[in-house]
UniProtKB/TrEMBL annotation:
GO molecular function, one term: zinc ion binding
Pfam families for this protein: FUR
Organism: Endobacter medicaginis
Gene: fur
Cofactor binding mode and count: Binds 1 zinc ion per subunit.
Binding sites annotated in the UniProt record for Zn(2+): 103, 106, 143, 146
Entry annotated with the keyword Cytoplasm: yes
Name of the protein in its database record: Ferric uptake regulation protein
GO cellular component terms, A-Z: cytosol
Quaternary state and interactors: Homodimer.
Residues involved in Fe cation binding: 93
Family, similarity comment: Belongs to the Fur family.
Keywords: Cytoplasm, DNA-binding, Iron, Metal-binding, Repressor, Transcription, Transcription regulation, Zinc
Gene3D superfamilies: 3.30.1490.190, Winged helix-like DNA-binding domain superfamily/Winged helix DNA-binding domain
Amino acid sequence: MNDASTAERLDAAAENCARQGGRLTELRRLVLELVLEADRPVGAYELLDQLRLRHAGAAPPTVYRALDFLLAHGLVHKLALQNAFVSCAGGGHHAHPAQLLVCRSCGSVVELEDSGIQSALARAAGLHGFVVGDGALEVPGLCARCAAESVSA
């Protein structure tokens, strides 16, 4: 991600947090910046290692508290299958839980913005008396590039 778009997304995130009554502190902003600049899902301890290069006193609780805040404000998504985090494409403006396509081969993630998927899932689950929660829906598979490579291999 280029510096201008990262800076714009960080500014938009700060405004979004303020509208929700939160504050994007320097450390939270830095953790979000690291997630935004990652070209793949990133784990908490990898974030901690990167954070320590800029903020020597960072400890695991520092990163986890920042990630909890960013999750609560819709700025990142947690990938349970990988125990890693990705930035939210909507920047905290989702009206629905995220649907994430996760490539099993390269780890790339595509976020879908299709409220119909969540509605269909809720209807199907309701037929079994199940109530769908608010978490992200992770769909493992192969991205276009990896699928093409596996066919040609």
